[in-house]
Amino acid sequence: MLPRTLICVPILCILLGCYPQTVSAEEEKRPNILFIIADDQSPFDFRFYNPKSQLDTPVIDQLAAEGMVFDAAYHMGSWSGAVCTPSRHMVMSGRSVWHIPRKGKPREATSNLVPPRLANNTMAAVFNRAGYDTMRTCKTGNSYAAANKQFTVVREALKRGGTAETGSAWHGQQVLDYLNEREKANDTDPFLIYFGFSHPHDTRDGTPELLAKYGATNHTDKNRLPPANPQQPSLPHNWLPQHPFENSHLKVRDEVNVSGVWQNRDEQTIRNELGRDFACSENIDIQVGRVLKKLETMGELENTYIFYTADHGMAIGRHGLQGKQNLYEHTWRVPLIVKGPGIAPGSRAPGNVYLMDVLATMCDLTGVQAPETNEGLSFKPVLEGKQATVRDVLYGVYCGGEKPGMRAVRQGDWKLIKYDVPSAGIHETQLFNLAENPLEFLPEHHEQDVITVTGYSPKPNETNLADQPQYIDKRRELETLLQQEMNRLDDPYSLWDQD
């Protein structure tokens, strides 16, 4: 005999007309996640950030048109010349730059700044516990190995060649093989796929057909310049023949020993290297297109949140730099697109997010509990159009070379960068209004020999404003803000002019 309460409930529902609603299997299905991350890619390479860019990425452009583009997404910075390493640690763990494991730093790895067994609370581990199938393909090295191992399926390799087997197509094929296996097994579990690439990080060996499109060659002769070609991308407007001062790490490998560039910053070298970079980036676009087409065929595309980003940006001639060891916008910023259910097509977010916010956002979008170790902020309210940003202030660090190195802070349109290089006697401050000077032109960009090469003449206010008397209050305000952020985030260093 049924308990009286179980009899009364349906009778009451009949009397009140509140018949139970059935929920279809489709309505119960949890959303998937496809997280796509490139290796070394400036946001200014893309037309949805830089309409004058000559890079063709029709698939990624379509993602931008169908989802939300973030105009102020940043990685927090690095304590290593291998900037990839802390960036990917932050992506995986949702923790800030001084609160993640540091290779060769056992004291910090066991201090209260880094929780014990952190890998058990990283991206794949969190989603595994929530019942998701997790798969990863990406480069090997300069990453968070303990977190990477948490993925159920791992297919990693360093693929920076110019063929299908040695380049980005290999990573794409790993995802396609995984999806084919799911389809054959009739696997209906939700999935989290970490779809990473080894390009456009150097060595940028593009495929022959894409190199030809961008007029580039896989240049290997250190004693000669690469051939000039009118099809090569134009020089960036903020190109310089050299950086105007020692920034704390101008002798790092990326600045002096990239095959095809080395220490050269001449027009032929940089345009050829940009052509190689674009060839590799367009190849990534092709592989993303293959995977999206497969998801569409499987009927999974509309129920999948797609993130597209990079671990950090890249200079390639901008400001006379080649690598990723700086805090200019072309390198501190990252591209970020999110497309998926409930996100308005063609929307843009002007406000600030970090890459470390991605884990919290993934959890929020899927109803998965974020780990207690997470420090990131979910930007789901931004994706839903409920607010413009989740952060007011952004902090950036680079001290992979001489300490303390570089620090940056941004609030609104204003950005401050400070350089402290004791051995070179360098104590430099830069102040930019990014609304008026988005490419962060310096006085050197106003010199006629630079203008002759770039073909762009900056406006008078497109310069470093740090030493102009009318901006002294703004400089002091941001310097105070920077010190507050350094203290809040447990930065172990102080700059020359800080208390």
UniProtKB/TrEMBL annotation:
Residues 31-368 form the Sulfatase N-terminal domain. It holds the Pfam family Sulfatase. Keywords: Signal. It comes from the Bacteria. Residues 1-25 form the signal peptide. InterPro entries: Alkaline_phosphatase_core_sf, GAG-degrading_sulfatase, Sulfatase_N. CDD domains: sulfatase_like. The keyword Signal applies. GO terms for molecular function: arylsulfatase activity; glucuronate-2-sulfatase activity. The keyword Chaperone does not apply. This is Sulfatase. The lineage of its organism: Bacteria, Pseudomonadati, Planctomycetota, Planctomycetia, Pirellulales.
